[in-house]
Write a structure and sequence with these properties.
Order of helices and strands: HHHEHEEEHHHEEEEEEEEEEEEEEEHHH
Number of helices: 10
Mean pLDDT: 91
Low-confidence stretches: none
Number of strands: 19
Shape: globular
Radius of gyration: 21 Å
Helix content: 10-25%
Structural class: alpha/beta
Number of domains: 2
Largest sheet: 19 strands, mixed
Length: 433
């Protein structure tokens, strides 16, 4: 843990006395908690199948500034890069105004960067909510982020505001093997507000992304949220998304994981009100040299809530994955309707997946089901398609696309849906059976 201790000591020395008092206290609490927790190991139940020891072996340092031309080479191939879209682009942790477009023309839509907050500027919403939604008690990397974050965004929509265009947040990182970024975001959606948010992570080289995002949906707010992980294959990606929903709000999460050598994404959603709807979809693709771990917790605390969860994984070569999904229903959450499913398709007998769907129900008047499957392509379906004139490769591609299509078709942004479909196609070109 020494590299992180060095980072923590260096940051504290650099910023002592420069931050707002409340923010300084938040950082200090994160620092102390991380030192007490240490990095998780496989002895911890939540990390039993994912080894992060290799992260601790690198002497991480803040990512340096990056020339715009290098970042542009990564951004342009994204087919959902829309010149008219609302977007914030962070290059090695720094906001790049050249490509960023803030919604200044939308009344009631407030956007502030973390850098501005660190300088004592920006709205007061962070004082009420930052660090209070993403509890770090059982999340050491959240503690580390709290102690070190210097970049990210605060997005606040006032009551009734409809952000008609998607807001894209791009995190572009280029590293030499020891660069680290710790982005932190806070989203506050007022009553009856609506928004579509896309977070995209891309990069080149070796680096470490440690991301935390906090979300508050007030009464009747509607949010469609996409997290696209397309990091470099030599990068480490750890991410935490914590969501707090109030009565009659609707939150839809789409986790799309294609890159990094090691990914750990945690989604925690608290359904704190009646009539809440929560959806969480995920698609992860892993080849040799990749390990992708998704942990989710949907906590129903009040009556008449519903949640739908479907995660699908496709693995080839020696790729590995973990899905651990828990739905918790408190005693007061009567009339809860929850459905959870995890399905995994292995294209190689050397691929590994650990599927752990779970229910924890303390109420007695509920309708909750869960299930998980791990299997290979149906040989009879393959044979049938080949008898119709398709080559084996084309038959495999058709079946895999159909398997992934249930998730891909739920993407409501056409350009993003097309890009994800292309990534599935590229994945199928790998010969790792």
């Amino acid at each position: 843990m020494k590299p992180f201790n060095d980072l923590l000591a260096g940051w504290e020395k650099k910023n002592q006395g420069r931050l707002p008092e409340q923010l300084q206290a938040l950082r200090q609490a994160g620092r102390e908690q991380f030192i007490q927790q240490g990095l998780p190991s496989r002895r911890h139940e939540a990390w039993r199948f994912t080894d992060v020891e290799q992260i601790s072996e690198i002497d991480w340092c803040p990512a340096p500034a990056l020339p715009l031309t290098e970042a542009e080479e990564l951004l342009r191939p994204l087919t959902y890069w829309d010149s008219d879209a609302l977007r914030l682009v962070f290059v090695n942790g720094r906001l790049e105004p050249h490509w960023s477009t803030r919604p200044t023309d939308i009344k009631g839509a407030n956007l502030t960067t973390v850098a501005e907050i660190l300088q004592g500027n920006g709205k007061a919403a962070w004082q009420q909510h930052l660090g209070r939604i993403a509890d770090s008690t059982d999340y050491p990397f959240t503690s580390l982020n709290t102690a070190l974050f210097e970049q990210g965004a605060l997005v606040e929509l006032e009551s009734g505001v409809d952000l008609e265009r998607p807001l894209h947040l791009y995190y572009v990182t280029v590293g030499d093997g020891a660069a680290a970024v710790h982005p932190r975001n806070l989203f506050v959606f007022g009553p009856s507000s609506r928004a579509t948010i896309v977070e995209t992570f891309i990069g080149l080289g070796g680096y470490f992304t440690n991301h935390v995002s906090e979300w508050l949906l007030q009464e009747n707010a509607v949010v469609d949220h996409y997290k696209v992980q397309r990091e470099a294959l030599s990068a480490f990606h750890v991410s935490r998304t914590a969501v707090h929903q109030r009565a009659d709000s609707r939150y839809q999460w789409h986790a799309l994981s294609f890159g990094s050598r090691l990914e750990r994404t945690d989604l925690t959603v608290t359904l704190d009100g009646t009539g809440i709807e929560t959806g969480s979809d995920g698609l992860y693709l892993a080849q040799s040299g990749q390990w992708i771990d998704h942990h989710t917790l949907l906590h129903h605390q009040q009556p008449h809530g519903s949640s739908r969860q479907l995660y699908k994984g496709i693995l080839t070569g020696e790729g590995g994955a973990v899905f651990n999904g828990r739905i918790k229903v408190s005693a007061d959450a009567q009339k809860t309707d929850a459905l959870q499913s995890n399905r995994n398709l292995l294209l190689s007998d050397r691929a590994t997946v650990h599927a752990q769907p779970q229910l924890e129900i303390l109420a007695d008047d509920v309708r909750c089901t869960h299930g998980g499957t791990v299997g290979q392509l149906d040989p009879e379906a393959l044979f049938y398609l080949q008898t119709r004139g398709l080559s084996r490769k084309d038959a495999v591609g058709l079946l895999v696309h159909a398997f992934a299509g249930e998730i891909v078709d739920r993407i409501r942004i056409p350009h993003l849906r097309g890009q994800v479909d292309n990534w599935v196609y590229e994945f199928l070109q790998l010969d790792q059976g």
